[in-house]
Every structure is written in structure tokens, then in C-alpha cells.
Write a structure and sequence with these properties.
By secondary structure, the protein is mainly beta. It is 4% helix and 57% strand. InterPro entries: Lipid/polyisoprenoid-bd_YceI, TTHA0802/YceI-like_sf.
Length: 178
């Protein structure tokens, strides 16, 4: 089996949530690692997908908000340093790769299915290594993972939406031995 790893320079893990029901707050995780293990990345036959995202690497462009998101009110990054994913099933149909597996956020694990779009492969001009691109967009209910902190607004609604929209742009290459 060959292991393909995400390139942190050419990959992004972004998200957005509604704030006060009227605007969106966007952010990203700066430290993450995605791996695909398979004999054939073109077909994803027998593939296993794993991901780790460092919760303390959250960045919304506001230090106070980031500190709140790392606190016990949300991720509790001190006790839950990683968001993890481990696939149970991977199927490719055309350019779509359906990945089902266990997501763990803040100590709570749920099975989820994500549709990845396979954008193809190319040869990097920087070293000649073959690279593969995948992307996905999905929405998760943060409350399913125990991230229930919120505040009611005088005008109705809540401060932070339940739904979190995520966008992942991932570039993979074969893992090099150290």
C-alpha cells in the first residue's frame, strides 16, 4: 500500500458559521494532516483515509474569539487537541469519492459520510512528484459533537449558528521516507 499525504502549503481547511443570524464568521485550521492509503489513487480501491486537525491551530483572525473557541465552551483544545477522522468505507464513482467514517470532535465520535471531488493529478514542476487534488464542502451540526455554547439574542435567534460549513481543498503526494 502507498501512503499519500496532504501538502500543508497547497491545502486548506476552512469553515464558516453565522454570527448573530446576520453575518458570517470565517476561519481556518492552520495545522492538519490528511492521509490516504491505497494501492491505486486513481480508483481509490481498498483506500483508507485518516485525518488529524490540531484544534489549537484555529484561526479566525481575532485572538479573543480564537481563545474562546479553544476554551471549554467549544473545542476544549487542552483536553481535546485533535479533530480526527478514520474511514470505514471508501467508494469512487466517476470524479466523486464517497468516504464514510468516524469523526471525533471534542471527545464525541459520530459516523459521517463526505463526498470528495477528485480533481485529477499532475506533475509538480518543483521536484517532479505526482500530485493529486481533492476538495469537498459539507455542513455539520456542531451541537451533535457537544459544542452547544450559545447566547440568545434580544431580537430572537442565537449568537452562533448550529451549522458549520466546511470547505477543504487538499493536495496529496506520495509520502517520502525520512
Amino acid at each position: 500500500m502507498t501512503v499519500y499525504v496532504s501538502d500543508p502549503v497547497h491545502s486548506e481547511v476552512d469553515f464558516q458559521v453565522k454570527h448573530m443570524m446576520v453575518s458570517k464568521v470565517k476561519g481556518s485550521f492552520e495545522e492538519f494532516n490528511f492521509e490516504i492509503e491505497t494501492d491505486n489513487l486513481d480508483t481509490f480501491e481498498g483506500a483508507k483515509v485518516r485525518a488529524e486537525i490540531e484544534t489549537a491551530s484555529i484561526n479566525t483572525g481575532n485572538a479573543d474569539r480564537d481563545a474562546h473557541l479553544k476554551s471549554e465552551d467549544f473545542f476544549d483544545a487542552e483536553n481535546n487537541p485533535k479533530i480526527t477522522f478514520t474511514s470505514n468505507n471508501v467508494e469512487k464513482s466517476g470524479d466523486t469519492v464517497k468516504v464514510t467514517g468516524d469523526v471525533t470532535i471534542a471527545g464525541v465520535t459520530k459516523e459521517k459520510t463526505f463526498d470528495l471531488v477528485y480533481n485529477g493529478k499532475g506533475i509538480s514542476p518543483m521536484g517532479g512528484q505526482e500530485v493529486h487534488g481533492l476538495e469537498t464542502e459539507f455542513t455539520i451540526n456542531r451541537e451533535e459533537f457537544g459544542l452547544t455554547w450559545n447566547a440568545s439574542l434580544e431580537t430572537g435567534g442565537v449568537l452562533v449558528s448550529r451549522d458549520v460549513k466546511a470547505q477543504l481543498e487538499l493536495q496529496f503526494s506520495e509520502k517520502q521516507e525520512d
